[in-house]
Structure to design on (622 residues):
């Protein structure tokens, strides 16, 4: 069931298009993420849903009702701001009680409801403190409690974890997912952190230049990027120039780097004509390196020379060179050796990968 | 050793600065308790100048006038200055921001003369009303500065949050904006009050005939020579100002950094 419908929404600032005719349907109970670099329009889109800015054109529906012209205070949704936006003159308790007071709940109901939320976010002991007496993580939890206290239909989160350090951020990831599952409130999450988006979301919309590049579940967005931008923005990726030389119903045969022919599974195979240019994208961790030749004819196999490596602790990134200046990145997990690397520079290795582990990205015309 | 020497120098310099500032004030306070009408020699401790002072009905009514003027002027300048401070922070009009500084930076003499000419031009009868209007005019700038500097320290997203959490723009104004800048408003108001109560120059130009305030009365008293009563009233004003400025600095420390 669709809870939030964004329909053909456009917003310009000073003659530049920030949000360009975007339409998204978000389902009840989803953890939906808008992912993109700064300036891609994700925060602008979120603020339009919150009612803090109004779109130039397009409509926004919440639970089937057109809310485009409603002021922010009349929308049954809340926002968690990047800076937490706690009221400095109010205690933790009064901050959390604020939306209930605005909705004119009676005093006794306010007290029980706030106490319950304080327990949920483990802040009972801090209820009489003021925001400046709290740590970043505690402020974050107050902001979350304040936004969920009147059970909104939708929670908008604008890079809520960007001010926290890495360890606390990981801890909050788990907390957020748990909270979302417990409350059943639909989350719309804005972030520029691709790992955060992959780990938390049920679906991701990757935004660039005010447009949606791809909207899909995390596994699809990561392993089957639809555009060059998505492949490049999410994690590390090998993007090799390719051209379609033949198509079937569910696969295309590509000529890669001008000399390798590969058959690749492809959902949109039927859409492509012979001669379509683009890229073959394959993630570094999908490629294997071996000392001896691999006996599996389903794989694409070639000899390569190791150019260098970068040790990351849990894994090591190698740069290898196939023929004709074709350089690929290969990620190998450091599962066995305590050594930083398996292969030295200048070593010849046997490289192999399953062609279907990669995908074809068509160049836009 | 070098560091020790320079820190000693610093301490000495500090002591000298404070002596330079406070010796005259301390002398005034001391002589207000001296049991002698003339001369600088210490005769003995007395409170009789304070008794004389409180018995002086003319001076007392001038003091009451000053208090009323200061209350009214700081009340209205707080209202105007708060709006101006919030608006200037929100809309950041460069020219207006420096224009609001002019009454603070311009010589008082200039402001006084300008106001006098203005009142004459519009045929406004000089008196207590013109004094109050003049005081509101220069006090508003100080309140605006105090409120504006408080706004700088405030996360603007709390106003979005207020709307988002169900407050309409009116409630957001008095439940979130006003309380969060209240320290700035109070500090600005106290500053306005002390500036108004001891203002001489601007008051002198805008008072006209027949209306008098405490500073104007003191000025006419010392024309006959410095009497111990003047010392006594000065002592009271010094202490009064000290209390108010320390209150203001406690409420809004960043203003006094």
């Amino acid at each position: 069931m669709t809870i939030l419908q964004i329909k053909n929404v456009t917003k310009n600032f000073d003659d530049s298009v920030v949000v360009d005719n975007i339409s998204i349907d978000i389902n009840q109970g989803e953890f939906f993420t808008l992912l993109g670099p700064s300036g891609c329009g994700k925060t602008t889109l979120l603020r339009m849903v919150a009612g803090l800015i109004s779109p130039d054109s397009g409509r926004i529906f919440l639970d089937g009702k057109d809310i485009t012209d409603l002021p922010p205070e009349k929308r049954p949704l809340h926002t968690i701001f990047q800076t937490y936006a706690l009221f400095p003159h109010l205690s933790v308790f009064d901050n959390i009680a604020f939306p209930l007071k605005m909705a004119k709940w009676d005093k006794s109901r306010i007290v029980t409801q706030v106490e319950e939320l304080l327990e949920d976010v483990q802040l009972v002991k801090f209820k009489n403190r003021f925001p400046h007496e709290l740590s970043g993580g505690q402020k974050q939890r107050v902001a979350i409690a304040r936004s969920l206290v009147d059970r909104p239909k939708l929670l908008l989160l604008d890079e809520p974890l960007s001010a926290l350090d890495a360890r606390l951020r990981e801890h909050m990831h788990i907390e957020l997912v748990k909270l979302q599952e417990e409350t059943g409130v639909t989350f719309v999450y804005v972030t520029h952190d691709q790992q955060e988006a992959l780990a938390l979301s049920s679906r991701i919309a990757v935004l660039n230049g005010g447009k949606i590049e791809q909207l899909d579940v995390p596994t699809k967005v990561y392993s089957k990027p639809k555009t060059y931008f998505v492949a490049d923005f999410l994690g590390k990726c090998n993007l090799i120039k390719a051209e379609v030389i033949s198509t079937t119903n569910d696969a295309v045969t590509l000529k890669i780097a001008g000399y390798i022919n590969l058959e690749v599974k492809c959902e949109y195979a039927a859409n492509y004509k012979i001669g379509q240019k683009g890229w073959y994208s394959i993630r570094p961790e999908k490629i294997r390196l071996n000392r001896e030749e691999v006996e599996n004819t389903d794989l694409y196999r070639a000899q390569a020379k190791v150019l260098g490596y970068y040790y990351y602790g849990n894994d090591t990134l190698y740069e290898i060179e196939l023929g004709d200046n074709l350089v690929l990145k290969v990620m190998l997990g450091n599962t066995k050796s305590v050594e930083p690397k398996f292969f030295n520079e200048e070593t010849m290795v046997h490289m192999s990968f399953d062609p279907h582990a990669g995908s074809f990205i068509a160049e836009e015309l | 050793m070098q560091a020790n020497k320079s820190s000693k120098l610093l301490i000495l310099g500090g002591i000298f600065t404070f002596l330079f500032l406070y010796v005259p004030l301390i002398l005034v306070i001391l002589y207000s308790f001296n049991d002698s009408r003339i001369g600088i020699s210490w005769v003995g401790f007395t409170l009789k100048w304070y008794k004389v002072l409180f018995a002086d009905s003319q001076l007392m009514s001038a003091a009451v006038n000053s208090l009323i003027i200061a209350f009214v002027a700081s009340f209205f300048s707080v209202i105007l200055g708060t709006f101006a401070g919030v608006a200037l922070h929100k809309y950041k009009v460069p020219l207006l921001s420096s224009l609001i500084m002019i009454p603070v930076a311009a010589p008082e003499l200039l402001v006084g003369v300008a106001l006098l000419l203005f009142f004459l031009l519009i045929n406004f009868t000089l008196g207590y009303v013109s004094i109050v209007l003049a005081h509101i005019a220069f006090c508003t700038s100080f309140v605006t500065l105090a409120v504006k500097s408080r706004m700088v320290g405030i996360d603007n997203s709390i106003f979005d949050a207020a709307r988002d959490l169900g407050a309409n723009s009116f409630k957001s104004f008095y439940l979130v904006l006003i309380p969060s800048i209240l320290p700035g408003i109070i500090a600005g108001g106290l500053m306005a009050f002390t500036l108004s109560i001891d203002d001489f120059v601007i008051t002198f130009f805008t008072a006209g005939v027949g209306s008098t305030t405490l500073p104007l009365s003191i000025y006419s008293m010392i024309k006959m020579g410095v009497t111990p009563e003047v010392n006594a009233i000065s002592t009271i004003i010094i202490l009064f100002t000290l209390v108010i400025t320390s209150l203001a600095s406690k409420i809004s420390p960043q203003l006094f950094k």
Notes: Residues 57-91 of chain B form the longest helix (35 residues). Chain B touches chain A through 19 residues (CB under 8 Å).
